[in-house]
Amino acid sequence: MTRLLMPQVRERRTPTRVGRTYHLRTFGCQMNVHDSEGIAGLLEADGMVPASDPDTADLVVFNTCCIRENADDKLYGSLGMLKRTKDKRPEMLIAVGGCLAQKDRDLIHERAPWVDVVFGTHNLQRVVSLLDYAEEWGPITEILEESEAVAVVPAKREVAHSAWVTIMVGCDNSCTFCIVPSVRGGEISRRPGDVVREVQALANDGVVEVTLLGQNVNSYGRDLELGGHKALFADLLRRVGDVNGIHRIRYTSPHPKDFREDVAVAMAETPAVCEQLHMPLQSGSDRILAAMHRGYTAERFLAKLDLARRHMPGLALSTDIIVGFPGETDADFQFTLDVVAEAKFDSAFTFIYSPRPGTAAAEMVDEFLAPEVIQDRYQRLTERQTAIGLATNQMLVGETIEVLVDGVSKTDAAMCSGRTRTNKLVHFPAATAAGSFANVRIHRAAPHFLVGELA
Ligand code: SAH
Ligand code: SF4
Ligand code: F3S
User: Which CATH fold would you assign to the domain 275-395?
Assistant: First the structure.
């Protein structure tokens, strides 16, 4: 196997794979979903067309995640299933990219020698050249240690009215449970003018909603010096808010330790910014938060929520919580339940702690918890949060809310679904076109969605 380290040049070329099919499967977070739009854009610029069936596609690409161990297992499971297809059709190509590829590198070929191309998080713009190489010379792994700049590739968007916009890549934090900094590298911000130009181009193309992406958007611009002062996330929000045609702006994720009043004020003063915030708690115990290196206490976290809610009335809050971090006691877990009760999140993503190679927490083996203890806590937490989510949604019954329509339901052609500004999913009977706005009167609430009818 060869490892090439070529300069990252964007090659201009005529399409060479016209009519050949690709099947692209994405694991992981919004960053990966957006990266996959870039991969699809590059493949289609080379003439390829999407295919839903991996068994008949000329190329299968997995864009991988390694945030928790089951993400690893899923990839190797899927690769195992593809081996039979590759045995039958040796001319098909298999490519594995993304975070798990960045982490596992040569291990991918060791465990799945039938893979043709392995690429990481810093070189997805080279996917087509790497496929060319593999067809000519055989399997290749190319992993770069870091990015020089945020790669901008023409994205192929699945949804016409809504788009992801990368404002920064990487993470400079060192949360002890988290593998992201080691697979995504350090923070690199895009220049605000470049972000605004991209948003303007999207608006010209019919996009009405953008979600700004970064692992820690509150530290956006720390690495940029513009005319003697730093670029700030609050300023970026205002500039994106000035783009004509953009009606909804969201962003993910802020880090609670870095969330400050200037951002809350910019949100409040920028009409397009939605009343929605994802604020990852991780734990409600100060002892565990310190062991996680999160840089805030439960009290300070709650104070940030207050700050945000004060400036943005009607703000919906979501969060991430990890259960079973090494050394978590019943008392620590009770603190998490207490914060959840007080914070009244609209929704929460709850995760069971998963040791990740190379992270500090993975070394705390002596303090790992028994799976049944974790399972019990996990269930108690999700039950508690489900009840809170239902209660917050029930308060909306009887209200008429603006919904941005995603389209007709896959299971019921008489039903549409869409999202409120607070990012709640709403189902309602209508045949309204995707991308249009509808006013929906809510008559029923469930923990994770609302049901209503056109007002
Ligand atoms: N940059 C984002 C987090 C990205 S990872 C942030 O700081 O908010 C998304 C979520 O996965 C994290 O918030 C965390 O709750 C969860 N997560 C990360 N590493 C994990 C691990 N080792 N085990 C379980 N959950 C984890
Ligand atoms: Fe991971 Fe922490 Fe960075 Fe988020 S802020 S990506 S949890 S290290
Ligand atoms: Fe995202 Fe998974 Fe990578 S959560 S940053 S795709 S490890």
Answer: Transcription Regulator spoIIAA (3.30.750)
Per-residue pLDDT reduced to its tens digit, 10-29: 556 799 999 999 999 999 99
Is the pTM for the entire model greater than 0.85? yes
Distance between Cα 321 and ligand 2 center (Å): 13
Question: For ligand 2, atom 1, which residue shows the shortest CA distance?
Answer: 178
Question: What CATH code is assigned to 2-142?
Answer: 3.40.50.12160
- The residues, ordered by sequence, that sit 6+ positions from 86 with a Cβ below 8 Å of its Cβ are 92, 94, 114
Ligand 2 pocket check: which of 99, 175, 349 to mutate, most ligand atoms within 8 Å of Cβ? Answer: 175
Q: Distance between terminal CA atoms of the chain?
A: 62
The best mutation among 30, 32, 356 to test binding of ligand 3, ranked by most ligand atoms within 8 Å of the C-beta, falls on 32
Distance between Cα 216 and ligand 2 center (Å): 7
- Cβ proximity of 246 and 201 under 8 Å: no
Residue 212, number of CB atoms within 10 A of its CB: 22
